[in-house]
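Please, structure for the following, as tokens.
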Amino acid sequence: MLEYAKVILPKVSFSRELFRKELNKCINWVEQGQLQELSNWCFKNFNNIYHDILIDEFSNVAA
């Protein structure tokens, strides 16, 4: 599922709403052991445009 996230998230990054929706799905679907890797990859690739979304979605996981 991590590889799916790495394919789909760049394709939907043109839309804030779609990016948030797909990121949420990926977070829920990825194996627990790969969650940190997904987070690191997302922050590396999308931090400059969707920092607020990344913070919101990944902080919800920890809660």
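Residues 35-62 form the longest helix (28 residues). The chain has one domain: 2-58.
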